[in-house]
Amino acid sequence: MFNIAIDGPAGAGKSTIAKTLAKNLGFIYVDTGALYRAVALFMQSRGITTDDTEAVQAALRSADIELRFVDGAQRVYLNGQDVSEDIRTPEVSAAASAFSAIPAVREFLFHLQQSIAAENDCIMDGRDIGTVVLPDADLKIFLTATAEDRAMRRHLQFLEQGIASSYEEVLADQKQRDYQDTHREISPLKAADDAIVVDTTGNEFEQSVSILMNLIKENLK
Ligand code: DC
User: Fold this and answer.
1) Distance 37 CA to ligand 1 centre (A)
2) Sign of torsion, CA 108 178 198 153?
3) Structure pTM?
4) Confidence of residue 73 (pLDDT cuts 50, 70, 90)
5) Reduced 3-state DSSP string for 65-121
6) SS3 content of the chain, % helix, strand, coil (to 5)
7) Ligand 1 binding site (Cβ under 6 Å of any ligand atom)
């Protein structure tokens, strides 16, 4: 199987770029953030908070999280229910970042991610794919951009979707998440030593896609 790991901070364009690349290549695109979001949604629905790690660990035993691929698009199922839309709220974003710092949560999702990669040619995006989940990936890319550039993109996306948004708030939320994701003890967000770092600041979407596509072509040979 050919596995491509794409890591980087929120809002660098990982998911939109990876989706397009996967389509071009006929690979599946695996958005691992959705798994952490599903765990967060599950814990929230049971009133479990991050400070009670024993309750988190116990609850994970009754969480069945599954990814299904419909026409190449990923859907996330939590105990048999499609939660693909429910996991996209700002509340779930913040909770996912917090729950993802708990070792039992990472352990729980680790095997699921590895088995998907073992069975499929895939582009997997996340925070620790190149460093922890797929240390032997065929190609590792670390996609980044300035905090301001990333926040502006998110802000414009919200407005496009008709969601009220303030740039300052998006920037502040994102800085908070960046801090949490890079400073956690377990599997913090960082580039693998053998990752190729691509900075998308100021790029048009197509530019970034073509930079990555060229890197992939070089490595597929
Ligand atoms: O990519 P995203 O914004 O959907 O991810 C939500 C949160 O999940 C993010 O703040 C950090 C966490 N996450 C992680 O710790 N490891 C991953 N591989 C993917 C996401």
Assistant:
1) 7
2) positive
3) 0.92
4) confident
5) EEEEEECCEEEEEECCEECCCHHHCHHHHHHHHHHCCCHHHHHHHHHHHHHHHHHCC
6) 50, 15, 30
7) 10, 32-33, 36-37, 93, 96-97, 100, 126-129, 177, 181
